[in-house]
From TrEMBL:
<comment type="similarity">
    <text>Belongs to the class-I aminoacyl-tRNA synthetase family.</text>
</comment>
<protein>
    <recommendedName>
        <fullName>leucine--tRNA ligase</fullName>
    </recommendedName>
</protein>
Amino acid sequence: EGVLPQEYVLIKMEVISPFPPKLKALVGRKVYLAAATLRPETMYGQTNCWVLPDGIYGAFEINDTDVFILTARAALNLAYQHLSRVPEKPTCLCELSGNDLIGLALRSPLAFNEIIYALPMLTVLTDKGTGIVTSVPSDSPDDFMALQDLITKPALRAKYGVKDEWVPCEVVPIIHIPEFGDKSAEKVCHDLKIKSQNDKEKLAEAKRMTYLKGFTDGTMIVGEFSGRKVQEAKPLIKSKHLEEGTAVLYSE
Ligand code: A2H
């Protein structure tokens, strides 16, 4: 935990009906998986969502209309940031495990894929952000490797009940970095010979390499701000999400 608070953008990934039996208490509500990101400008490249299979989540009332699925820890923090129907008190409508969320069909803002699915990632932390992570394999080494693992390992898919049609087969290029091309995460994971999502040290190095370069040297190649530098587009896309109500701010 850092000394300074970290501000995340929570992307509202809407759960598409019909809801599975485990979510029956939520029928008739607007339900979202709330994914914490530091890179709101990358949302064009979302291909899926990540949850921790053994993680414990809940469906919490955020206001009179919206329900967010996230960890109880994040719900409590949100309740002190004016994001709870009852101020300073989270209201949980039902408890859910990550396994209950795998396979949920989602509609996520700016994503080119109209429907994306919640899938298992084994390195999601439940004591950071919301415990829900949106996946942008073009620009996030963690996301790229977790997706590679699902694509190449049938036993992993079987273990978590992942249907083949839920797994995206293509990365969506969204940002050009002169040194790394249009799929920076794929290039860096390949160059560093990263083997799986559990290769923590190399992934940390890959993240360092891509995160800074993406910000300083990256150019958007899609969307409303195509052609603009990432540094310029980032605050604009963040404001757009907030104005359109497709995201909220969250600090911890
Ligand atoms: B980022 P920091 Cl394209 N467990 O969003 C594991 N990872 C989590 C998490 C959790 N509970 N909550 C958030 N994250 C991820 C996009 C992205 C991100 C891109 C590139 C880099 C990147 C799409 N995934 O992060 O430890 C989220 O992934 C590189 C650091 O608070 C979030 O932003 O610094 C980032 O980690 C927050 O990490």
